[in-house]
Amino acid sequence: MRxxxxxxxxxxxxxxxDLRDEDxDLRDEDxxxxxxxxxxxxxxxxxxxxxxxxxxxxxxxETPETPDAPPIPEIPxxxxxxxxxxxxxxxxxxxxxxxxxxxxxxxxxxxAAYDDVRAALDxxxxxxxxxxxxxxxxxxxxxxxARLREELATLRGRLQARRETDAPTEGVAAELAETATRxxxxxxxxxxxEQTLDRREAAAREAREKREQQLELEDRAANLxxxxxxxxxxxxxxxxxxxxxxxxxxxxxxxxxxxxxPTEGIADPGAYDxxxxxxxxxxxRVADLDTPVVVxxxxxxxxxxxxxDADSAADDSVADAIAEVLGTPVVLL
Length: 333
Known about the structure:
mainly alpha, two-stranded antiparallel sheet, 9 helices, 51% helix, rod-shaped
């Protein structure tokens, strides 16, 4: 049986529990699954994309240069998918089987293409271009220019009228000169604002093209991820079918049945028609994990003593029996 990592030791809030012990039964303890999962993984918190230690989506990383860009999905670690057997097969059987396949070293044929697409997405920078502000500046400068031209025309008329009546013109002439100077400045500002707007609009067109490219790459990445999951699930389908039969024969499990459900076509997530817990346990049996798996008590029977298909002793604990059939250390919760 595979052994737990020696560095994974304590469960916060539970006295006397050392996860270096191969199999641990915490059914009598008041402890949340997330707390146990954090302990076995050697972490205090899981990413937001993980709910109750199980993958609810993909882990995400943000592209710093494009804060408004959608997050880019990552391929999850196998234990992030398989680490909590709770009888709720989420997000899908295909995801669980793909995680099991990755843990035993399977590589899908689409992986190189997926890595290339991810690299292209990582390198793609979509700038945040503020065209609206540049347009407002052009409009404001244009409005001020029009106002000054009108004021300049009015002053010229007043100056001409004073000259015709031999009235003093110094004040109006000074005001006219000041307005003309200000008009020249505003004209320069308006031209500069228009040039800035031209550059911003060109940058915005480039940004739109990059966003379209980003969407195309993201669609390509999503298609490749689906194809990888299908390939990986198909690769371990025979092993999964065998595992279903083995797990279904374990008396201490709530999924124990005399006749296991059919497993033909299980690479199609809609084809498997058995209990979710049975599928989860079988996927874990197929996998090769070096971190204990948390198994909810609802998945285990309440029998005080059990036997399994590997002829374990009658006085073996439930946790030991489950660990034996799964081939990995277990924390029963």
